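for the record, two folds in this file. i put them one after another cuz i was lazy. first one right below, seq on top, structure tokens after. the second one comes after a little note so u can tell where it starts
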Amino acid sequence: MKAVLQRVREARVVIADEVVGQIGPGLLVLVCAERGDVPAQADKLLAKILKLRIFSDAAGKMNLSLQDVAGGLLVVSQFTLAADASAGNRPSFISAALPEDGRRLYDYFVAQARLLHAPVQTGQFGADMLVHLVNDGPVTIPLQF
């Protein structure tokens, strides 16, 4: 699985002019399942996201995790993270999981996140979404498991 984490002051997902997920300070996580990915990879990815020390401590050092700061987690599915643009000018998404497999892993990831952390908000799998964010830092971290 692949993810891009963005430390945010706030973020929200809008579908058809309706806010479907919103957080204050925390992490916006764009997540992508690829062919052959299994729940164990989602577990490793989530564990890393929750414990990654990318929030500032009292001295201004990136030394605190999302759990340490009780930040929000906004999880948005994004199959385009599987893009391969190495040949030509049109990206290929052949490595992205099939939609039913991607949905299953995304739903699993979100369910596990809700068991281990609060608050967790989401976008909508497969929907055309507008994602608004105020990137804090900016801090943007790619992860893959």
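(here's the note) second protein begins now
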Amino acid sequence: MYKKLLQEAERENIEVVYQPLGERIKGLYCDGVIAINKNISTTAEKTCVLAEELGHYYTSYGNILDTSNTNNRKQEVKARRWAVKSLVPLKSIIQAYEAGCRNMFEVAEYIGVTEEFLIRTFETYNAMYGKYKKYGKYIIYFDPPGVYKNIDNFKVHF
């Protein structure tokens, strides 16, 4: 997935660079450049950071670093939603379930994201759809996380 996101950045003429950004900052987007903290060691975490920064490219405008500003927080939410939908579409949650994943760690590993990102994904979907969302013959629960397959009347919590 990371390579796919890098290719997308390249198609959009966005340069991706790796810089020391301090402990708390994982990535930044500004004027056609995405900076990723060079201290990030896992591909899964780089994938999540790159997706969020691409989300800013597609959904944000101006300097939104001041999180006390309501408009900036709204733009942060839009970017996160873009990243969530790109990296963890509902279909991938079902695929992880069908592949035998039975907890958040296994699902995150299967999809290729961090467990932290996956938890935020379920929180994001909960805010978007409520406690659950019907998807084909499945019901995906966001709080608590789990998948219910209508045919089997079987529910597994992650």
